[in-house]
Amino acid sequence: MDVEDTNDADRYRAPALDKGLDILELLSEQKEGLTRAEITKLLGRNASEMYRMLERLVARQYVVRSPGGDRYSLSLKLYALAHRHPPMNRLISEALPVMQRFADTAEQSVHLAVYDRGNLLVIAQVDGPGTWGISVRLGSRVGLIDTGSGRVMLAFQTPEQREHMLAEHTKVKGEITLDAGALEAAYRQIREDGFSRKDSAQTVGVTDVTFPLLGPSGQAIAALTCPYLRRIDEYVAPSIEDVTALLKEAAAGLSIFPAAPGQDSG
């Protein structure tokens, strides 16, 4: 940072805002919340200024107190605000009709996930038209390492961005640990193929088919996944090859960037 940048940073300082953001960022990393004393100690701040800031964050419903009143944690307000954010709304609104057409034609469910603080967040979900199927709940957090969605998101990033995402990663319940060599091999194969199709690491009998939604820079901004279930009765449903082709078409229609390697037509 040069002298001019430093002067600008000093000129536009907003200490109260910085304190509030420090608290929100700290609480975002805590599963059980923190006491006011813990927050004060971890941030190295004055106790009285932390008290005032916490009271305002509680009043504005960004932070909630525990029933006993001694611990603070994030509310869901930031989550709600993020999903009112126009780019996210636009992605969901554009994706849902495409996902619905896919589900109706493929006779399978489909979900859309984006990267969020070390794992993936499911932001859209459409069920297949049949009387049975498998789906991932809207708002669920799914693993970055052992899911088709996670691996596709990681595969279509720059090495620097992938390193950052892996550094932020925290294991979700039941997530399988894989070594770095296996992951790197998976990324190379996914980039070569343009998509991922693998047996689910979470559910027996499910094959996860995943394509990236690519942004202007060619990096994945979201992952579109069909947890494919094969019919074994007399009903003839679309095959996994048919479903893969349909999902490829859906993802290409939602991508901003031209087709990824392995996703060219033909």
From TrEMBL:
Q: Where is the IclR-ED domain positioned along the sequence?
A: 77-260
Please state the span of the N-terminal signal peptide per the UniProt entry. none
Q: Which Pfam families match?
A: HTH_IclR, IclR_C
Any idea where the HTH iclR-type domain is?
14-76
PANTHER family (UniProt xref): HELIX-TURN-HELIX TRANSCRIPTIONAL REGULATOR, ICLR FAMILY (PTHR30136), HTH-TYPE TRANSCRIPTIONAL REGULATOR KDGR-RELATED (PTHR30136:SF7)
Record protein name field: IclR family transcriptional regulator
Work out whether the entry's keyword set contains Lyase. no
> Which top-rank group of organisms is this from?
Bacteria
What terms describe the molecular function in GO for this protein?
Answer: DNA binding; DNA-binding transcription factor activity
Q: Which UniProt keywords apply?
A: DNA-binding, Transcription, Transcription regulation
Biological processes annotated in GO: negative regulation of DNA-templated transcription
